[in-house]
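Last lecture ended with a question: if I hand you only a sequence, what can you say about the shape of the protein? Today we answer it with a concrete record. The protein is Nucleoside ABC transporter ATP-binding protein. Below, first the input exactly as provided, then the predicted structure, then a couple of comments.
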Amino acid sequence: MKDAMISIRNVTKRFPGIVANDNISLEIRKGEIFALLGENGAGKSVLMSMIFGLYEPDEGDIWIKGQRVTDYSPRQAARMGVGMVHQHFKLVENYTIAQNIVLGMEPVKKTLGFLPLVNLTESEKEIEALSHRYKLDVNPRARIEQVNVATRQKVEILKMLYREADILIFDEPTAILTPQEIEYLLEIIRELRENGKTIILVSHKLEEIKEVADRCAILNRGRLVDIRDVATTSTREMANLMVGREVMLEVNKPAPAFGEVVLEVENLRVKNQDQVEVVKGVSFQIRGGEIFAIAGVSGNGQAEIAEAITGLKPVTDGTIRLNQVEITHYPVRQRNLEGIAYIPEDRQAYGLILEDPITDNLALKRYFQEPFSTPGGKLRPEAFVSYARRLIDTYDIRSNRGEASITRSLSGGNQQKMIIAREIEQDTPLIIFVQPTRGLDVGAIENTWQQILREREKGKAILLISLELDEIMALADTIGVIYNGEMLEIQPASALTAMEIGAYMMGVKEHE
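The predicted structure:
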């Protein structure tokens, strides 16, 4: 095809024990937004990594702008105008935004006629102008460690634009963004297309694909299932093709059977690292068999509530009781042993040891207990392996080398499945889910929702913190809405509409 920016012809990529991409052929046209859909571990990121030069195909060819690429690398990809925003950002925390953007191609001027000196001032001006042009307004002098997730994403986009990329690959770009940030990013993607860029959007969020993409290719277990025009394909059709079966996200939630109070939080106050109070006198209870959901816009204190309950953040004031035992100042392990399971918001920072194998991560909270170790403290490797194999099978955790796979090598969604499997299998009276379906595909979301409801049926108390209002409305028995660190309203889920919750989330109090 004459206007093809990228042609992938019969490409196969294998890793030990798995065929990540199996004889895939497709073409991406100039000036379109092309979406690549598939379950977690379907091979989307691997295929895009080959276009970006991180991997080479074992079989088949890749053509960029009519030129067949050989001995391909990210540096060569950048020279050919290909840029990629990875799912997990590649930024240096203690560098400024400008330093991150120019890294590897620093502008140099000569002092005294011969001494090379990096001209960062000039770069900062260029980056400022570039960010205004694409409505990505950032402060080039701010350090990465000081900025939020949405700004970091803008920096990754500016890195591509600074290198004059005209093919832009976004790998799961909205997986860690709030709904407001997602809408803003989609506007940026449209703006980039209007400026003549070709966009490849790797995602499993079908509503977003429907909103911005022109065409979509659907992968299932490494194989290309179909290429569709987005305008004429429903999200249900996309979901069914991705998963290979009928997907149902309408939950069948039996009437609750509440038990005794499991968690009691009273007048909780928490400060952040700058000693600013971010949780202000919050009180609530969760009974056995109850899903208590906290709804709110990101950054209003809900993450700090979870961290205070789990012991990751100190409590300024107030009490936390688990099954009538006060645990307010217990260390983290003691809270775990008392009966708290925790699925954190940031799976890589707080949930996993990325360089360790699956076996170690799945036993991370139980390795010091039988059957994983003897009474004398000697580890039993065979117990780690058999336990990991059972969880891999039960929770459909996909990897290239089974239980021996290094955790970093798994897709983001499969890493999330690992954490959910480990925490649910602890069989604790309280389970805290923070953004449990972030980064998961529609099939995995369906399974996760069903797992949460099964734990509810077992009589577990569940604290659900989610930015997805649809998720809260589907699962919650009781909803608390938080704004600016205060719990504005707590009601049975049946007594609140999405519009009412949205109003509370924006700080509108009752009778206003």
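Comments.
1. The longest helix spans residues 179-194.
2. The mean pLDDT is 88.
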